[in-house]
TrEMBL record:
Residues 7-166 form the FAD-dependent urate hydroxylase HpyO/Asp monooxygenase CreE-like FAD/NAD(P)-binding domain. Pfam families: NAD_binding_9 (PF13454). Residues 533-562, 577-625 are annotated as: Disordered. Residues 582-612 have a biased composition (Low complexity). This is FAD/NAD(P)-binding protein.
Length: 625
């Protein structure tokens, strides 16, 4: 029998998670004579680029160590078997409430990868190719060819799975114009990038720097330009090194993401999903004309989040409501949006106890200060209030809303591309920085190293400088010779720097209006522009319209990424096990050496820079002349 070949492009957390699911499902589903799995990634397998161990120890995980797992549990709705494993804090021996640094997470991911390889049945061998895949071609009904940079021979594959993770992107028109202006006038412009990979040396000590973006990329920037340049914290006071620039930061909202919640759940949980579950998602997917997020989806999200919020308020803080939960819940379920507002007003006396998602999304709307100094005081009060609230169980409806957000995300993943607004809103409420990072922001603000610009920040380039203004202090302008875009790049299939993704799109793979690669929601097969799934190409991760909230997730929360990984792994194994699975008719001579490392259950860490034995199906095809 022919030995089959699977190529996985991307060996970070998503590729590792897929490998774990292949190992879990193979004993049931794979009946082949053997299988070569080729992992293509220039970065170390397991950690990949983002979580690689070789980065600054000052950069932290954004979740408590107890909230990070790479292993399934019984809450994941999937066809494959559950294989439990330790969370990050259990594996590393950390306090569960610790925010571990990313190097620890990288080591955990490498261990998960090694364990997945060790769990593969005999006859399945893993090869890591430390390079970049640049193109995939081949007939729909035949073996695929995966071309690697710097190689004249492609990898042959029965199937290809793209688990590319977060990608770099070519700048959009505004970013190109700002970069061109900077070059022409001797300024510094750093476009959207992964902050840990950015060259920050051009940001000079003591000089003002405009920063657009107040999310997690900004937190990394702040850390690397302060503690990373020798500053230190003494309690709530920052002691400068003298090497820090002055950061003037603003964004659309003008405030940082909400701090992580600093207390645990107690008592009864809301029964989620309640108003936005599988049945509602099925109905949306079945609509002949499709659906609109704001018109059709957001009302369900709004009702679900409100249900969780008020369930918690009634059951944990009954002294702050009127009536019983049972009576309220019955009326809430039957009410339309206007009726719900009236119901809430009558049952919840204090407006501060009512859930107002619009106000949460835009906390500075209508807020105006007379000067930048007044704004600094006002934003410090806002951050102090957020820290206090997120660590006070008296505000535990916030934690209920967080649980509802996770439930909602699991449904939205099934809907595909719902536009960028939702993902930003989710991250702002549910995926903000650790509380200690906000306390550091306060210390830096008091030290004069961090300055707030406000909401609706705009940037212009004129008269040889960059200028920033915001709506929160009308008429006020900040000038600087450096501008940093503190946000991740948005790699549409047209603008992704990854040549493999661009070539797939050029060859007919479909993209959503938001520029994401369109995939079959059932198993991740790549769709063409006619909506047909490619029988031999799959894709998982944030570059697809089935992107989840992360490659790893909180234990016992259903893990949409785990469900997707399992579905793809089972589809891959079933295809390769089918008697009609096509075999390659080509038998080219393999090269004498191969830039790959080879891993099997019996030899997990071997580095063997040569092709597999000649008795196997050749891995490489001669390049056409």
């Amino acid at each position: 029998m022919t030995r089959h070949s699977l190529v996985i492009v991307g060996a970070g957390p998503r590729g590792t998670g897929l490998l774990e699911r292949i190992a879990a499902n193979a004993p049931e589903l794979y009946a082949g004579a053997g299988l070569d799995i080729h992992l293509v990634d220039p970065h170390p397998p397991g950690a990949g680029r983002i979580w690689r161990e070789r980065q600054s120890p000052l950069l932290w995980m954004n979740s408590h160590a107890e909230d990070v797992t790479m292993f399934t549990d019984e809450t994941v709705e999937m066809a494959g078997p559950v294989r439990t494993g330790p969370t990050l804090h259990e594996w590393a021996g950390l306090d569960g409430r610790t925010f571990a640094d990313r190097r620890v997470q990288g080591a955990y991911l490498r261990w998960v990868y090694d364990r997945a390889v060790a769990d593969l049945p005999d006859g399945i061998t893993v090869h890591h190719h430390p390079g970049r895949a640049v193109r995939v071609d081949g007939p729909r009904e035949g073996r695929q060819r995966v071309w690697l940079a710097g190689r004249t021979l492609p990898l042959l594959a029965d199937l290809v799975v793209l688990t590319l993770g977060h990608l770099d992107a070519e700048p959009d028109e505004e970013q190109r114009e700002l970069s061109a202006y900077a070059r022409a006038h001797g300024l510094v412009h750093l476009p959207p990038d992964f902050t840990a990979d950015s060259d920050l040396s051009a940001l000079r000590p003591g000089e003002p720097v405009l920063v657009r973006g107040f999310g997690l990329a900004f937190v990394d920037l702040m850390v690397l330009l302060t503690e990373g340049r020798g500053g230190r914290y003494e309690g709530d006071t920052y002691v400068p090194s003298g090497r820090e620039p002055v950061l003037h930061v603003g964004s659309r909202r003008g405030v940082p993401y909400h701090a992580k919640i600093g207390y645990d759940w107690t008592g009864e949980r809301p029964a989620l999903p309640r108003f936005f579950g599988p049945a509602e998602t099925d109905a949306l997917l079945a609509r002949p004309g499709g659906f609109d997020f704001r018109r059709d989806v957001w009302p369900l999200v709004d009702k679900e989040l409100g249900f969780a919020h008020y369930h918690r308020l009634f059951t944990a803080h009954p002294e702050r409501v009127s009536g019983t939960w049972a009576a309220f819940a019955e009326k809430y379920a039957a009410a339309d949006p206007d009726e719900r507002a009236a119901l809430v007003a009558s049952a919840v006396p204090d407006p501060a106890d009512r859930l107002d998602l619009a106000a949460l999304d835009r906390p500075l709307d209508g807020v105006r200060y007379g000067s930048h100094e007044e704004l600094q005081d006002g934003l410090r009060r806002y951050i102090e209030g957020d820290l206090s609230r997120r660590h006070d169980p008296q505000h535990s409806p916030d934690l209920a809303v967080f649980l509802a957000l996770l439930s909602v995300y699991g449904q939205l993943v099934r809907l595909g591309d719902v536009g960028p607004w939702w993902h930003g809103f989710f991250s702002y409420l549910a995926s903000g920085p650790p509380g200690p990072r906000l306390r550091q922001m306060l210390a830096l603000s008091r030290a004069g190293i961090l300055r707030f610009v406000g909401a609706d920040m705009t940037v212009t380039a004129a008269d040889g400088v960059f200028r920033a203004a915001g709506a929160t202090v009308p008429g006020a302008v900040v000038e600087a010779r450096a501008l940093v875009e503190a946000r991740l790049p948005h790699p549409t299939v047209e603008r992704a720097r990854d040549p493999l993704l661009r070539s797939l799109h050029a060859d007919g793979a479909a993209a959503t209006p938001d520029g994401l690669l369109a995939v079959d929601r059932a198993d991740g097969r790549v769709l063409d522009r006619a909506g047909l799934p490619h029988p031999r190409r799959f894709a998982l991760g944030p570059h697809t319209d089935a992107r989840g909230s992360g490659a790893f997730t909180r234990p016992r929360t259903g893990g949409p990424a785990f469900r997707q990984n399992d579905a793809t792994a089972r589809a891959v194994l079933a295809f390769l096990s089918a008697p009609q699975a096509p075999k390659s008719s080509q038998t080219p001579q393999a090269p004498k050496s191969s830039q790959s490392s080879q891993t099997s259950k019996s030899s997990q860490t071997s580095q063997t820079p040569q092709a597999p034995e000649a008795a196997r199906q050749p891995l490489l095809e001669e390049s056409p002349r």
